[in-house]
Amino acid sequence: MKKYYYITPENEQRGPVEAAMLASCGVDSNTMVWTEGMANWQRAGDLPDLTFFILSTSTPPPFNPSQSQQQFDASQQQFGPTQQPNDPWQQQQNGSTQQSDGTFQSQQAYDASQQAYNPSGFGSQNNQAYAAAGNPFTNNASGNMPPIKPDNNMVWAILSTLCCCLPLGIVSIVYASRVNGFYYSGNYAAAQEAADKAKNWALYSLIGAIVANIIYYGLIFGLGLQHEFFNF
């Protein structure tokens, strides 16, 4: 890359510097520069090779706020004021809806058109009947979401019947079989009570089996000691 000499505003010769460094040295389009191969000093702005490497001496025109306001007012008169998009929710609160041609339709007119389109009121009647009958999954006194269905403990009831105490296990099975029926009929308190009783009776069956085994093996051990004592 060529290296250039330049004349400072104090009429001092500086350089040589590469073309990419001219702007950092304060060289603009009016600065006199020279490089090898040139016959005389020339203005940097007259050299096409330095167009992208020198400072621009052009300045923007002064800002005129009044002129900008006049241009803004002229654009408003030409295109009209900016319109905000329609808010369907606000229109619903005001009891009206806006049509595509800009007119408004009252809520009463809208209801009348719906009645004319569906005179039998099929959908609304079904909804009312469904609400009156109640949802079996939300049909409780408070109208809130029903509680989670309790575990009926049927598995523990069957295991306690087969492996522990038969009579107590049967009682546990009876209570466990009632849990689902109570729950789906909306009697959640009875369903929880039946689940608790099924669990308790299964536990009683296990405890009864443990106690019976302790007594049984205790008697065998005691009789064995007694037999050994008399034989001695």
pLDDT < 50 stretches = 100-104, 129-134
User: Treating each run of at least 4 consecutive H or I residues as one helix, how many helices?
Assistant: 8
The helix content, as a percent range, equals 40-55%
* Helix-strand sequence: EEEEHHEEHHHHHH
Classify the secondary structure makeup into a structural class. alpha+beta
The gross shape turns out to be elongated
Rounded mean pLDDT is 75
Distance between the termini: 125 Å
Strand order of the largest sheet: 2-1-3-4
Strand content: 5-15%
What is this entry, summarized?
By secondary structure, the protein is an alpha+beta fold. The protein has eight helices and six strands, in the order E-E-E-E-H-H-E-E-H-H-H-H-H-H.
Describe this structure in words.
The chain has 232 residues and is an alpha+beta fold. Helices cover 50% and strands 9% of the residues. The chain is built from eight helices and six strands. The longest helix is centred in the last third of the chain and has 44 residues, at 188-231. The protein is elongated.
